[in-house]
């Protein structure tokens, strides 16, 4: 694996000059001219519509500012990535950075590739595994500590494999975690956390958790409290200091709904299960913000819901509808960005868009949208460490479901 780059990707956001402001009926339309754009290489003009509205929550009333359009790096293929790849599920990160280097992981014909992107957009790739029945890659990093893993079919079984490196990938130690599917990884303070589910996804599956302490992986423990004959599946994990949270969906009450469990002592003990969404819902993701917030996103009844906690996850305010669609993905810093497969209809319908929304730490929407690019799948999102840009990535899958060209767009938050 290449050594990490000391510069941030991407380079060159757009500098704007306001040309005109027109206010009609409380809606301000602002026309900008871009005077510098290192991606497109020419000035561009865009119109931003700003609307002011009041959004009431259970604990407070906040003013929400929504922009219906933001200046962006033009939609393009991600450099250095082959034309037929697959990504992980929405519970797992495929793009990570610690501010010194940005890594992207994907699978192509059973080959796992890890890429490092440089200052000028160049991509250096490293083959992590040459061949196997590989799906659903995941990655996490904290400085030089990097972990990557996936689900691999071995005979009739699906197994979880994780590689861990303490030196930015120069050397890698491999660990087979046993049978399972749907790996999610998180990193913080020199530790890695992993969750996955094991068993029948309709009747017996359980959520397992393990942590790497810098030397070895702990014995996996069961996290959910689902009764016999029910299933807990598609878990996600995040950690920050001694705090850990795991989200999943299970059918203990009949229909699948969203649940969460937390630890405040590094995973040594766990608080009781928390029921996050009582109506039919699923495939949640959670993350810790840089300012003490905890965020959860999930889909349900064709909507993407976003929830915020200001007490370390003990309670949550009312959900906000971020958009329409399925399979939310989160990335949290001070701001938070949520991405999803945008569609009005069933998640199997073609011609989905790459939906996204960005919020401040107070839950105020900064921007949102849906990118049209043929048939879209596996939308994933990423905020740069300096929070100047947001990157939306997706697969353009015009011929084969869940396999396609990795595409992206970059938004400026300045």
Structure description:
The chain has 414 residues and is mainly β. It has a single domain (73-412), classed as 6 Propeller (Neuraminidase), CATH 2.120.10.10. The protein has no helices and 31 strands. The strands form seven sheets. A seven-stranded antiparallel β-sheet has the order 22-23-24-25-26-27-28, with no helix packed on it. Residues 1-69 have low confidence and may be disordered.
CATH class: Mainly Beta
Secondary structure: helix percent: under 10%
Q: How many beta strands in the DSSP annotation?
A: 31
Strand content bin: over 45%
**How can the largest sheet be summarized?**
7 strands, antiparallel
Instruction: Give the count of structural domains.
Output: 1
Mean pLDDT across all amino acids:
81
Distance between the termini: 32 Å
Instruction: Please work out how many helical segments DSSP would assign.
Output: 0
What is the annotated CATH architecture? 6 Propeller
Uncertain runs are: 1-69
Biggest sheet, strands in spatial order?
22-23-24-25-26-27-28
Give the overall shape, derived from the CA principal axes: globular
Oligomer: single chain
What is the alpha-carbon Rg in Å? 21 Å
- Decide which structural class fits the backbone: mainly beta
CATH topology: the name is Neuraminidase
Q: Can you summarize this structure?
A:
The chain has 414 residues and is mostly beta strands.
């Amino acid at each position: 694996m290449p050594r990490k780059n000391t510069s941030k990707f991407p380079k060159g956001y757009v500098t704007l000059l306001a040309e005109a402001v027109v206010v009609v009926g409380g809606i301000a339309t602002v026309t900008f001219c871009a005077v510098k754009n290192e991606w497109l290489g020419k000035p561009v003009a865009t119109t931003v519509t700003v609307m002011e509205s009041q959004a009431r929550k259970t604990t407070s009333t906040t003013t929400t500012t929504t922009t219906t359009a933001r200046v962006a790096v033009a939609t393009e293929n991600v450099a250095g990535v082959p034309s037929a790849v697959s990504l992980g599920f929405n519970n797992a990160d495929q793009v990570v950075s610690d501010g010194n280097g940005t890594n992207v992981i994907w699978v192509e014909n059973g080959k796992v590739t890890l890429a490092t992107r440089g200052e000028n957009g160049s991509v250096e790739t490293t083959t992590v595994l040459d061949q196997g029945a590989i799906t659903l890659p995941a990655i996490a990093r904290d400085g030089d500590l990097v972990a990557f893993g996936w689900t691999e079919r071995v005979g009739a079984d699906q197994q979880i494999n994780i590689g861990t490196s303490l030196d930015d990938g120069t050397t890698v130690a491999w660990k087979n975690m046993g049978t399972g599917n749907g790996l999610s990884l998180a990193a913080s303070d020199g530790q890695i956390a992993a969750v996955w589910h094991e068993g029948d996804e309709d009747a017996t599956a359980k959520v397992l958790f393990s942590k790497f302490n810098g030397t070895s992986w702990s014995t996996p423990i069961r996290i959910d409290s689902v009764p016999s004959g029910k299933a807990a599946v598609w878990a996600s994990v995040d950690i920050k200091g001694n705090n850990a949270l795991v989200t999943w969906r299970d059918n203990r009450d009949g229909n699948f709904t969203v649940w969460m469990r937390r630890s405040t002592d590094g995973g040594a003990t766990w608080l009781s299960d928390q029921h996050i969404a009582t109506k039919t819902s699923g495939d949640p993701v959670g993350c810790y913000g840089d300012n003490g917030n905890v965020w959860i996103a999930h889909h349900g009844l064709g909507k993407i819901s976003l929830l915020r906690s200001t007490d370390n996850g003990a309670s949550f305010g009312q959900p906000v509808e971020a958009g329409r669609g399925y399979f939310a993905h989160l990335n949290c810093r001070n701001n938070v960005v949520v991405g999803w497969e945008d569609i009005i209809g069933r998640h199997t319908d073609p011609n989905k868009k790459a939906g996204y929304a960005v919020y401040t730490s107070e839950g105020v929407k900064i921007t949102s949208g849906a990118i049209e690019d043929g048939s879209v799948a596996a939308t994933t999102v990423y905020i740069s460490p300096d929070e100047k840009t947001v990157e939306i990535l997706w697969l353009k899958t015009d011929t084969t479901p869940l396999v396609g060209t990795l595409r992206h767009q970059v938004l400026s938050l300045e």
